[in-house]
Amino acid sequence: MKTENRNEIEQTGPLDLDEIKRFSHQQERQEELNRKQKRKHEMQAKDVKEHPFKLSRLKKSFKYAFQGVGYCLSTQPNMRIHFIIGFIAILMGFFFHISQGEWLALVLVIGFVIILEFINTAIESLVDLYSSDFSFLARVSKDVGAATVLVMAIVSVIVGLIIFLPKILIFIGIIK
Predict the structure, then answer these.
(1) Which residue from 12, 47, 122, 164 lies 20 to 30 Å from 89 (Cα-Cα)?
(2) Does the domain at residues 55-168 carry the CATH identifier 1.10.287.3610?
(3) For the segment 91-142, what is each residue's pLDDT rounded down to a tens digit?
(4) Which residues, including other chains, have CB under 8 Å from residue 71's CB and lie 6 or more apart?
C-alpha cells in the first residue's frame, strides 16, 4: 500500500515549495480581504440602521454609480455606440418636433438599451471573476447577456424607424 502512494506522488511530480507558498499567501490574502469586506459591510449595515437618510452615504452611492457609468463608457465600445446613437436620436427628436408620446417611447427604448448594456457588463465581469478557464455555462451566460442587449437594440431601431422614417421622408420630399 505504501509503495502505491509513493508511486502516486512520483507520478504527479515533485512538490514545488515556492508554488505552495505562493498559493498559500494568495489564499491568506484573499481571506484577509474577505474579512475586511465583511467588517466594512457590517459597519455600513449598522450605520444604515442608525442613520437611514445620511447625506454622505447618498453622495457615496452617486459617486459609485457614476464610476460604474465611467467604467462602462471607457471599457465597453458598444456602450459608447449606444450613447452616441441615443444622443443623435434625441437631437432628431428636437429637430422633428416629435410628440409627447413619441418622446416617451424614444426615451424608454434608449434607457432600456443602456440599462441592459450595464447589466450585460456586470454579468460579463462576474463570469470573468469566477471562471478563469473555459466553461460552457460561462459562455452561455455571456452570450445570453449580449443577446438581451441585441434584442433591445433591434427593438429600439424599429421604434426609431416608426417615429422618424415618416418625418424624414416628408422632410426630403418623398411623401407629402
Answers:
(1) 122
(2) yes
(3) 999 999 999 999 999 999 999 999 999 999 999 999 998 888 888 999 999 9
(4) 121
